[in-house]
Amino acid sequence: MKKIDRILEILKSNCLRITQTRISVAEVLLKNEDKLLTSEEIFQLIKDSKAHKCDQVSVYRILTKFVELRIIEKNNFQGEASKYSLRELDKLGTKALKHEHYFKCNRCQIIVPFTRCYVPKMEKELRESGYTNLEHHLEIKGLCPDCSSS
Amino acid sequence: MKKIDRILEILKSNCLRITQTRISVAEVLLKNEDKLLTSEEIFQLIKDSKAHKCDQVSVYRILTKFVELRIIEKNNFQGEASKYSLRELDKLGTKALKHEHYFKCNRCQIIVPFTRCYVPKMEKELRESGYTNLEHHLEIKGLCPDCSSS
DNA sequence: TTTATTAATGCAACACTGTTGCAATAAGAC
DNA sequence: GTCTTATTGCAACAGTGTTGCATTAATAAA
What we know:
Two copies of one chain form a homodimer. Chain A has six helices and six strands. The first copy, chain A, is an alpha+beta fold and 150 residues long.
């Protein structure tokens, strides 16, 4: 099954309408799966495509809804606009948590996701102390190899 | 040596003036060492004390300066105003990084700092790949024990 | 296919956090 | 006490995001 079809399926099963704006947002996210996009960037890409005109507010509302439906992830970096990215196909609409672990270069601003994760150990300790429903956000910043060597 | 004296010493050694507003900000932070305060809260506490009147903008500027001078730490939580806290006496003005590891309850909003940290392992891997000047921010959210059991 | 219903949208206005420019004030050097 | 200028207060602005409400369009029903 294609991702776009799964997204439409999720909308339908939640009694939400398949609107042009929702399709446009989904398409932009699909075309930029390797990136983290801000609401503003998504809005501009829709505008540029000229396929359909819409309002920035609608983009905000749709992104908020998509996060609720677990279609996308919202990633926050200190003092910046939230960045969004599509979840993997098999996790679309599910409660499976995506790990949010990013390195961000303080110079060239590149954002590199990384997969190794030791946080579960900390979460295990918290769970053993009575904490529940744990989720986390980890952000490592510094200089990437390119910026370190120049 | 007292913390307040060390703060004034840092200001002097950086050729910055000891002003009433800077003293007020330092005093509020000292009186609330166990908490993380927002700029707005610090401003209100100064206003309430009536010891001295000042502007919100000055508080912003002073906090920014104090962060630069490594007198305080700036802690960011998703979509919220930055929260500030004094550093430990022996770390005031030094480059020693404070670990920022917080648990935040999604229900009662309590923020609990925790000390155990596995992040250095991730940072070690990044350093071995050529990354430098690493710093991090980790935020774990969920329900605290009290909220979990009620 | 047309009509009716109402979810979704566009627009304007607002809210929150934080920043900037500049004239007035006050810290502290002399 | 006077002078210099760092610091402040004020007003205005900027970025991100939200809310209320009248209009539009997606979809169910006729």
